[in-house]
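Q: Could you fold this chain for me?
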Amino acid sequence: MTTRTQPRTARLCGITGLAGILVIAWAVNAAPPVKMTADVALIEDLTAESQGLLTSIEQFLATEESYNDRREQLKRQAVQIAIFAQALAEHVDDSPVKTSAPGARNAALELARSTSFEEASQALPNLKMAVEGKTRGTPAVEADWGKLANRGLLMHAMKERTEAIRRALRRPKDPDVESRHAMAIALMILSVHGDTRTAKTPADKSAWQETCLELQGHMSKAAMAIKTRNESAADHFRLGMEACDKCHQKFKP
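A: Sure. Below is the predicted structure, expressed as structure tokens.
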């Protein structure tokens, strides 16, 4: 009896230990590249930008024709909502949408991955409900930032945001809105940070991720400077673009 019980106990301990290791490994992999604080992005900016993108997506889905015309733009906007939702879910500050943020992330990703007007239209109500702070189910808070979005989509979206910042620096109109372009880039680059496919060596991977964090830091600072009309906004944006150029020259993403 004893000889049978001991191996079984040992096997159970081994299984339990393995499960623990897998949980720890997932937690490590799911950790955001930086701690989500107000220095990275403000709660009110994350929620306002998510609402603004949702309004735009609703307009794209008004008709099948408008969806077909704006399909790629809709995908870019949906993945940005997913990233903002993940930031809200992991933010150290509380918010009315913190609990619903993981659901918003999942609904936004479902919308981004849809392949037809019908699929996108079916995904929209869940996204709208979650962005508005209504919960449905209990999806995990943790997510792998490197798998939140296709890097090609994000590169295009960051280019759009970059051009918007340049226009805003030349002729500022609404600093609250304009600052959110820099915030969006700061968060999108955190998703790119986890996608190290073009890094062939450990040194390359380290350089890739260091440059991503350098860009994030300058864009987060640029966002705050634009919002407060601080003259340092142009300098932080320039330094961020220099980090971006350095990355493109080395890795050609």
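A (continued): The chain has a mean pLDDT of 86.
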